[in-house]
Amino acid sequence: MPERLTATEAPYTIGTPPFRPGEEADFGEGFVEQPGDLNKPEVNCSAQDTATHAVGLIRVLDDEHVAHGEWNPNLDEETLLKGLEHMMRLRIFDDRMIKMQRTGLLSFYMRSFGEEAIAIAQTMALEEQDWLFPSYRQPGAQFVRGRDMVSMICHCIGNTEDNVRGRQMPVHYTWKEGRFISISSPVGTQFPQAVGVAMASAYRGLDEVCISWLGDGTSAQGDFHYAVNFASTFKPPVILNVVNNQWAISTHANLATGGRTFAERGLAYDIPSFRVDGNDFLALYAVTKWARDRAGAGLGPTFIEVYTYRAGAHSSSDDPIAYRPQDEFKHWPGGDPIERLKGHLIGRGLWDEDKHTELTERIDAEVMAAYKEACTFGDLANGPYPPASTIFTEVYEEVPWHVQEQREELGK
Ligand SMILES: Cc1ncc(C[n+]2csc(CCOP(=O)(O)OP(=O)(O)O)c2C)c(N)n1
Ligand SMILES: [Mg+2]
User: Is 86 touching ligand 1 by the criterion CB < 6 Å?
Assistant: First the structure.
């Protein structure tokens, strides 16, 4: 029997956060990985062909915001400007919603601050008929699909025009018309759902790809592994993203990986796996388009680790000062996704500071008008709220007898 080692002698370490409150966050000079480092394989490649992509980092924009390499999606001006506008819209929208929360007009809120590029670039790379299985950190996909902002705010308030009548937490959107599947509060359920719908789509011979996102912390859930296992076995048209934003509330991602990248987990399941700079709009677009082409050709799933940084608090109920240096985000080498795309557009002569200010003001006015209109249908402080009777409606197509009995008992 070998002698039992003490925790400090053991040849392994358990991950801890890189920096603690009061320490200086120092991520070095920038990413070691540069655009052009990694090739773009054929869409019919094997998982092994992506072995270097799962440990490297696919980037297109360099530190001067210039696009390089095989992964450059060469997007037209209109698409780039649309992407910038949606990201700006999401950030301004989030700021307004947080103000509503702080003034008691909303119960709870979660921002996408620093992660705006992810759902927006990735949804833009898909087809309209594709299905979205998001977490609460991808509301931006709805802007891409054209959801009315008033309806989004009504949902967050839970007022009389909330499309789910207060059944869901704020930011846990559901939007049937946009194929944006309801976000569930227990994290991770969206992964097996996406794989299941993708399998159904393949059986039915439809050109409908599913995409799902979950967080670094959520990848510790059983649901993650069930889903990736089924994707590995049945090879449905699905794109599975782990958004590694470094934090799961106050738990750092180092505690979730055992020293490997998240993308390597996809490789272990024999799925082509990429690690992509999540603050680089162009890289995200290109990798997702690649995965969409692969899925659409019937070649099966793609696994993506989206490497980013949660710049804001986890939610309106969280204060990161307790567990990380306050200015950690400012040192994050991935920078700000909006500033990076803006810098790229300015560098190409397609944008300037005046246009940026003008657009900011236009979106600000749009958000303010939507906010005022939404409040006419009720706010948290003053109501009105959906009537209590709605707890009995809109769930079952045919109301079961026991629910009907309860309803009658309550006289609703
Ligand atoms: C099954 C389950 N466990 C715990 C929670 C509480 N919870 C909500 S979000 C969260 C952290 C998730 O972190 P991550 O997956 O990294 O996503 P992020 O918030 O960083 O986008 C936790 C623990 C929950 N909602 N569901
Ligand atoms: Mg996280």
Answer: no
Ligand 1 atom closest to the Cα of residue 315 is: 19
Dihedral sign from CA coordinates of 149, 184, 320, 325: negative
Q: How far is the CA of 91 from the centre of ligand 2 (A)?
A: 18
The residue to which tokens 């359920």 are assigned: 189
pLDDT digits (tens, 9 = 90+) for 75-134: 999 999 999 999 999 999 999 999 999 999 999 999 999 999 999 999 999 999 999 999
Q: Which atom of ligand 1 is nearest to the CA of 136?
A: 21
Which domains are present in the chain? 54-311+331-390+399-410 (3.40.50.970)
| Active site positions, annotated | 310, 314, 323
Residue with CA nearest ligand 1 atom 1: 186
Q: Are strands 131-133 and 210-215 parallel, antiparallel or unpaired?
A: parallel
* Its pTM surpasses 0.90: yes
* Opening angle at CA 173, ends 251 and 382, nearest 5: 100
Q: Is 407 helix (H, G, I), strand (E, B) or coil?
A: helix
